[in-house]
Amino acid sequence: MRLFEAVMLVLVGIVAGTMNSIVGSGGLVTFPALLAFGYTPLVANMTNNMGVLPGALSAAYAYRRELKTQWSRIVRLAALSLVGGFGGAILLLVLPAAAFKRIVPVLIALALVLIILQPRIRRRIAQRETTHRRHIITRDGGIFLTGIYGGYFGAAQGILLMSILGAVIDESIQKLNSIKIMLAVSANTAAAIVFIFRGGIAWQAASAIAVGSTIGGQLGAHIGRRLPAPVYRGFIVFVGLIAIAKLVTS
Questions:
Q1: What's the predicted TM-score (pTM) here?
Q2: Which residues, in sequence order, are CB contacts of 184 under 8 Å at separation 6+?
Q3: pLDDT reading at 133 higher than 80
Q4: How far is 127 from 27, CA to CA, in rounded Å?
Q5: What are 215-235's pLDDT values in tens digits?
Q6: Domain range spanning residue 162?
Q7: Can you tell me the distance from the alpha carbon of 9 to that of 29, in angstroms, rounded to the nearest whole number?
Q8: Domain tally for the chain?
């Protein structure tokens, strides 16, 4: 790998790690960069997964204070995300690339609507305790399906997770973000295991992205903690709209 390519991948890794720590969608930066350097879509997808995983772990460490009181909840949800991630990674290896391309912008758009309506949805849930079981099923099913998506592609996984978590869990947006990071780690770890056994990861490129994303994970946590909840939601919606535009026009 040439020096220029290595430097550029470290830089885009920093951007991706920062975005993933705050909101998600970092893969929309690293994946096109890998394609631009001549990697095939499948290799780029697998390499990207390996590259951003250390950044997610870095962000999880940065959010360790918020995670302290969340572990009982995280264990169950992370198991769902892990199983989904295995399924998504296997689907990536057997399905054509176009299979998810058409539905991903729709999923992100629905997630953005949920994020905008989160305060209202949470108030209605609090007023209707009889619907608690239904919302638990919706939450768990949503986490599992998002895990599949994360194992398959992953870009904007964080936006989908934040929309689901924010709609059914009454916690601060910072604590929700810490849960989101751990669920993304679970799905990406499952996918990474599948990709390692399958072979074909461009390890030098993945290592360069990993260096950058690890730095970005810390930067994102530093920035994200200082954003008020309304601004945080607005930033998620902004990034989501960019993600939709990029996916539709690519």
A1: 0.83
A2: 20, 24, 56, 81, 150, 154, 157, 158, 161
A3: no
A4: 38
A5: 999 998 888 778 777 777 777
A6: 3-249
A7: 10
A8: 1
